[in-house]
Amino acid sequence: MRLTILGGGGFRVPLVYGALLGDRAEGRVTRVVLHDLDPARLTAVTRVLAEQAAGVPDAPEVIATTDLDEALRGADFVFSAIRVGGLQGRADDERVALAHGVLGQETVGAGGIAYGLRTVPVAVDIARRVARLAPDAWVINFTNPAGLVTEAMSRHLGERVIGICDSPVGLGRRIARVLGANPGEAWIDYVGLNHLGWVRGLRVAGRDELPRLLADPVLLGSFEEGRLFGVDWLRSLGAIPNEYLHYYYFNREAVHAYRQAEKTRGAFLLDQQAGFYERAARADGSALAAWDRTRAEREATYMAENRETAGAGEREADDLSGGYEKVALALMRAVARDERTTLILNVRNQGTLHALDADAVIEVPCLVDANGAHPVAVAPLPEHATGLVCAVKGVERVVLAAAGSGSRATAVKAFALHPLVDSVNVARRLMEDYAEVHPGLAYLR
What are the protein's UniProt keywords (predicted)? Predict the structure, then answer.
């Protein structure tokens, strides 16, 4: 089986390849094609993968190319993990937004809109090429903003594009762990949009264990989300929010913390990964060892400003191991081998949430088999959550309209309608400043 990874020079690619190395079953991936626009990054990552594969019999063959059409032809699965504008673009997203007193995170608020506006046209082009060159391929999208990009691609690929994210998996794992349950045996009642969802229940052997957690303040405060959001707020909600909802529930504090930080997250990663790629290019050292050190630091500092604001302390050791590569592999196995499983994925709504139309991409538990991912029926969200989901989905739809029409006025509307942007005038200034720093927004007129 042939897997094509778009963004093949990206820092997380070794996580995916490492997971593939452990798969010995029939029908496994035997060839990995890495595509990237940057030959130097491709070379560095290919060196890491070669060290990973050393001594592993029948390790998947790795091919690197900068030709997108060549990468897509013959693919059985396409894993999309691109970053339009690179980490410099992410750093600029954060810097511009914070200068106007609003959040610049890459998937939330103004930063997410700017990222989406320059990513959607590229993602749509990829979707069209896949439809033409590899019509039987399944696309697994991890490109952020994951829900928005998946919805843009679904307009050309239908159900054959599925979005993934490791946040719900990590959240469910932490809740199960603190309750003494096996995460692999727990049913997680999770629903929302990407980076905007809530766990409303966790069933083990048919029994919902979440009320037990919410009733015990010591237990509830013993894991990351309990420390991040606070015990009293979680008990008021009656649910456990995705960590990214901290940007909504504690927006003022988050913006203040990010403005006070020595570096934004994007600027930190830009410097950190530049150092990795420089070290990985040297012939006198281990590219894999350099990658391991950089990854450990990256995971340990994840959402550091939010944790500092909440007094949540350091991340647990079990939360430093990533997870999206495991979701991707489980998804590929289920589809390619008809190994039926349940995963939390970004898929078309199809009536699952009645407040949204059928084509809206949501994040929800899905039954996965050879025919793809099928969303499971869920109970309605409470009114406050429904309102937030509808508002953010409405913004995503305006972003898609702006990307499709090239209308700058529509792009301004997307900024202005987001719950975390507090003024139409701020939205106009954001659009002006983002257009100045991002060549990828030149299409907006």
Answer: Cobalt, Glycosidase, Hydrolase, Iron, Manganese, Metal-binding, NAD, Nickel
